[in-house]
Records
---
Amino acid sequence: MDSNICRIPEQLAVCSWSLRPRDTVDLIEMLRSLGLSRVQLALNAHRGSGGGEAVGRELAAAGVEIVSGMFGTVGEDYTTLESIRRTGGVVPDETWEENLVLAAEVAEAARALGLSLVSLHAGFLPEDPGDPDYAKLLGRLRELGELFGAANIDLALETGQEEAPVLARFLEDLDAPNIGVNFDPANMLLYNKGNPVEALRVLLPRLKQVHIKDAVVTDAPGTWGTEVVVGTGQVDWPAFLGVLSNGGFGGALCIEREAGDERLADILAAKQYIESTAAKETKP
């Protein structure tokens, strides 16, 4: 195994929204309890009135690095696969103008925080380039790319709502140098869109960030898979980490947990599992 895998523990971070902190002080305390000092920060709540700068100062004073930001779009409804297909990302016409305003505010907050990367769910991308929505989404994402690019910020589109070759082709057609991929292996399973390791190989050249999350595929077509604690699902983590290390990926690996009521314990378990797996892969 490539010796780069030994650097993986240093790349670990955690998604702030997974911890559900009451405030910045609470976030800092939880990070310390986890033994982590790197975070991907949810930005929706830090727009305007210097809010982003204030949280940035607090985190910096505590020795916490913000590796990237994230924002959720207006009107997203994750109740069912069908509801998120209708409402997710920048797809719906009825929320596009509001989401464009939101994106501009998020870009300003990210700029104030000195961030170079922000992730989002773009929504379900059409598989057929001849679909009228395909050109529409290319146009909308180019507009977002230019908006964030003006602030020297890259965008990372989350995986899962389409198979990896579909996203790879869309990004090629998009031809926006500052837009790439935030790869979430669990999302590939939750949406039942392919093997996470094979999908990672396809999207590795476009990779900007990774979410560390695990899941199992549903037995009932048309319904969600189930998110589980990292190491207990269907992601082949030794193979997954091997692809990252052999590919020389040096970006953030952000632990995300969006299910369950024991978030802190589950995130700690994920951290320990990834560290242990990386250590095993480096043994001669």
Note: The longest helix spans residues 93-112.
---
Amino acid sequence: MTSHCRYVLRLADTSLILAQRLGEWIGHAPALEEDLGLANVSLDLLGQARMLLSYAGELEGRGRGEDDLAYLREESEFLNATLVEQPNGDFGQTIVRQVLVDAWQLELYERLQQSKDSRLAEIAAKAIKETRYHLRYSAGWLVRLGDGTEESHARVQAALDRLWPFTNELFAADDVDREVAEAGIAPAPDSLLPAWSVRVDEILVEARLAKSAAVPFGWHGKQGRHSEHLGYILAEMQSLHRAHSGAAW
């Protein structure tokens, strides 16, 4: 598999797994409005994942479509960022995770619109409109929770401390990242960090939250080495398709 294909799969899998995580809130969110809000964000991410998975299948050239890539790959073949597979926890933890991912995807899609890969640029142009809304939604809630009651503040601060180390992976380059950057297909991951930091810092200040200290990071989901949580996500997500392989509506 080429670096180009692996890079597109990384983007696809990150959106797909986060969509699955957010879908777990349906029927369980704190209020009906948030039930619908999280469901809409999940559907947006699923739509992005479908476009990217279809494109990855074309780049791979083995005849695999979006369903094959979503439902018939093993855990080690998924290339999503480890952050998105982390458990939802309470509503505050979900919001913290969402802010960190939304801010990163917004910077990434803005840069991908200038990609030399016209197909990837088109997908980014469509996705960025949704991603702007995602960040407004998640940032608004983080401010309400962080600047809310003593308990809500403590919960989101604890969630931020727990999830912050996983953001290191978003900006750490490996051979795949370097190859697509040199080809003009995608920006170097570390080039996104300054703008992401400014955007996230502004939200954290308004939410009265303290940025967590940098700590070593040991997970590399984008290289197929995941936390213990991904297997459980895939078991649920893939069960129906695997039980009725080849079935069609």
Note: The first helix runs from residue 3 to 23.
